[in-house]
UniProtKB/TrEMBL annotation:
Residues 106-130, 257-279, 296-351 are annotated as: Disordered. It comes from the Eukaryota. It is a peripheral membrane protein. The keyword Phosphoprotein applies. This is Oxysterol-binding protein. Residues 326-337 have a biased composition (Polar residues). Residues 9-101 form the PH domain.
Length: 751
């Protein structure tokens, strides 16, 4: 069959014949080339659940045997493939070579550490040019001495050979004299080389100390410069207001032509200062122009009764301090403001049994692994928390009221601020949660029906086991729908584990039709081997409104021991389709997010690093989201939030595949870990048996020439997303109707 995509695209698919063994010979297989990995399946339907093998092209060798054959080898793994024709073979070879080159570039560009040092300025380069020139001269002297040593050493060797071949005693005196002269010359040259080496080392050592002093001096100068720029920005802002002498600043504000590097240079707490205490500075993102944010005095701005629908105009009177959507507290429930038609909240549990103090015996785990296949080794529940991955995915809705408030926004840029805060809030529960959630079984589901209490209902389903993938759909009668399909990829790097969620999150508002799409950042679990586990979030989130083309670029700054930034810092800018910035986002992913409306922006000169400096003058920040405090005794309840404590609470009328009914998870929550381990092993073996039966059915269908559909999700179906163009599982309906009728006949027996 013809490949599904042209060579050079990110994904390349098609049929090839793969050598299996001498009995069956070449068998037809479906191959998928994506992200530098070549995977194959028996049928196209198997892509949903079973991958037969994968080879990494970044370290693979690609060879061609004849007009139709391709040989891929990577270490001890070799694929012998055959195409239908020479033309098709050449297409695949081209696609494989391009994918291999791209994978090698990505591997070479990947770096675990990021340096904080900046390039040397022109003055530093000129100051270091002299010592470097002297060192180069000494190095040339060493090279010259090395050549002389080689030359005289060869002459000495020839003389010694001639001395050995002497027969006449009369000639011995002259030959020995020549040898002595050459040996003396060799010794003099060697001494000269040694002296040159000594001079070289002394010079390098002295200049090394000088460079260290210069580097320390530059660091101190940089700190003083940042402090000076902060004071200048404050004084400029104060002088501007004093010069105008009016209660409001007006629409046109003077630009602050500062070219300092953007940095978190807030005054020390408690410092006595006459300048405006509300002035704040924000770090710029690496891939965006550097900027400084100066907060204007809100008392000098007119108050008006208008809402924030005109925020994109940049007028201070549009920022209503009292009646704005931004001003409503996120701590109050939505029922108190606009959810009067909703029923009172049902009383739910507020605690679970305390976590047992079981010591983890690594030897007992290793002892159970002897003589077993790696895939059959059961991991004990000691590493888990009593929630499944589907329930952890549902925890993203803990701050759903942010989306309820976003519905009320008339401006798309305002709405983007709440969506950005919601995307950050989903990480607040991870700061202390180092335990691993249970891996869902294939076909496992989890519902969270809060339609009558909070206005939304959520459904998750495990739609694939290899690779593991979960589909999620949320409908809110408050005017929004959210859906996503998440696949987890992980990389173990010795000291830490990187967890990379793959897949896009979609959010659509019913009335406006605004469709937002974003992806999650990388989570890193540190101290895997030794030390206390801790989690960090790093990377960037780009939220795009595909209707209005508004964007928000959020940067999660990774933790650094040497950084002066606030830990777990998140910064970003909300801009419209024309690239004009409207709001500055700032905060931390474990505490709160704030939004500041931009009144005016100005550009300074270009720095030596080539970055354009931008100064944003903003109004006072508004808190959009603040983390709820953890319940009492949370440290003994796996650091669960109030919502997490209710997720595994038994409920009636749920599907028989619901995570609440999973026996090993229930036993672990009750503190019966030994019984939970036995039950967990039973469930995993039952799932393997079902998979083996499904594979046997696929082989039988293949031998009979029939198509085998394989596993199909219960409540979701795969479709090509119209916005991203990706194949994604979307909710096809039927679950809540089946719940009303209590007709669960389509549900498999997985527990």
């Amino acid at each position: 069959g013809a490949p599904a995509a042209p060579p050079g695209s990110d994904t390349y698919k098609g049929w090839l014949f793969k050598w299996t063994n001498y009995l069956k010979g070449y068998q037809r297989r479906w191959f998928v080339l994506s992200n530098g990995l070549l995977s194959y399946y028996r049928t196209q339907a198997e892509m949903a659940h079973t991958c037969r093998g994968t080879i990494n092209l970044s370290t693979a060798h690609i060879d061609t045997e004849d007009s139709c054959n391709i040989v891929l080898s990577n270490g001890g793994r070799t694929y012998h493939l055959k195409a239908n024709s020479e033309v098709e073979r050449q297409r695949w070879v081209t696609a494989l070579e391009l994918a291999k080159a791209k994978a090698i570039r990505m591997r070479n560009n990947q770096s675990d550490d990021s340096g904080d040092e900046e390039p040397a300025s022109q003055s530093d380069k000129s100051e270091l040019h002299g010592p470097l020139k002297t060192l180069s001269s000494k190095l040339e002297d060493l090279s010259t001495c090395n050549e002389l040593i080689a030359k005289h050493g060869a002459a000495l060797q020839r003389s010694l050979s001639e001395l050995e071949n002497l027969r006449l005693p009369a000639d011995s005196g002259e030959k020995i004299k020549a040898v002595n002269e050459r040996a003396t010359l060799f010794r003099i040259t060697s001494n000269a080389m040694i002296n040159a080496c000594r001079d070289f080392l002394d010079l390098a050592e002295s200049h090394s100390r000088k460079w260290q002093r210069l580097l320390q001096h530059e660091r101190e100068q940089r700190i003083r410069l940042e402090e000076t720029i902060e004071q200048l920005a404050k004084q400029h802002n104060s002088l501007e207001r004093a010069c105008r002498g009016a209660p409001g600043l007006g629409t046109g504000t003077a630009s602050i032509a500062s070219t300092a590097k953007a940095g978190s240079v807030q005054s020390a707490k408690g410092e006595a200062s006459d300048e405006d205490e509300e002035t704040e500075y924000f770090d710029a993102m690496e891939d965006a122009p550097a900027f400084i944010t100066v907060t204007a005095d809100p008392k000098h701005h007119r108050r008006s009764g208008s809402n924030l629908s005109g925020a994109s105009e940049g007028h201070p009177e549009d920022w209503n301090l009292e009646d704005s959507v931004f001003e409503s507290s996120n701590q109050s429930s939505y029922n108190e403001s606009t959810g009067k038609d909703l029923l009172p909240r049902k009383r739910r549990r507020t605690r679970i049994p305390d976590k047992p103090n079981y010591s983890l015996n690594l030897w007992s785990i290793m002892k159970n692994c002897i003589g077993k296949e790696l895939s059959k080794i059961p991991m004990p529940v000691n590493f888990n928390e009593p929630l499944s991955m589907l329930q952890r995915l549902t925890e993203d809705l803990e701050y759903h009221e942010l989306l309820d408030k976003a519905v009320k926004c008339e401006s798309s840029t305002e709405q983007m601020c709440f969506v950005a805060a919601f995307s950050v809030s989903s990480y607040s529960t991870t700061v202390h949660r180092t335990a691993k959630p249970f891996n869902p079984l294939l076909g496992e589901t989890f519902e969270l029906d809060r339609l009558e209490e909070l206005g939304f209902r959520s459904l998750c389903e495990q739609v694939s086991h290899h690779p593991p993938a979960a589909a999620h759909h949320v409908y809110s009668r408050r005017g929004w729908t959210l859906w996503q399909e998440i696949t987890i990829a992980s990389k173990f790097r010795g000291k830490y584990l990187s967890i990379m969620p793959l897949g896009a999150i979609h959010l659509e508002f019913h009335s406006s039709g605004n469709h937002y799409v974003w992806r999650k950042v990388t989570s890193t679990v540190h101290n895997i081997i030794v030390g206390k586990l801790w989690i960090d979030q790093s990377g960037e989130i780009e939220i795009v409104n595909h209707k209005s083309k508004d964007k928000c670029q959020l940067k999660f700054t990774p933790y650094s021991y040497f950084s002066r930034d606030v830990p777990r810092k998140v910064t970003g800018v909300v801009s419209d389709a024309d690239g004009k910035a409207h709001y500055v986002m700032s905060g931390t992913w474990d505490e709160k997010m704030e939004c500041s409306k931009i009144l005016h922006s100005s550009h300074g000169s270009t720095s030596t690093e080539g970055k354009q400096k931008t100064v944003y003058q903003t109004l006072s920040p508004k808190v959009l989201w603040r983390k709820y405090p953890l319940p009492d005794n949370a440290e003994n309840m796996y650091f669960f939030s109030e919502l997490a404590l209710t997720l595994n609470e038994p409920e009636e009328r749920v599907a028989p595949t619901d995570s609440r009914l999973r026996p090993d998870q229930r036993l672990m929550e009750s503190g019966r870990w030994d019984e939970a381990n036995v039950e967990k092993q039973r469930l995993e073996e039952k799932q393997r048996a079902v998979r083996r039966r499904r594979e046997a059915e696929a082989v039988e269908a293949l031998e009979e020439g029939k198509d085998y559909e394989g596993y199909l999700p219960l409540w979701f179906e795969r479709k090509v997303d119209a916005v991203t163009g990706e194949l994604i599982c979307v909710y096809k309906g039927g679950y809540w109707e089946a719940k009303d009728k209590q007709d669960w006949s389509v549900c498999p027996d997985i527990f």
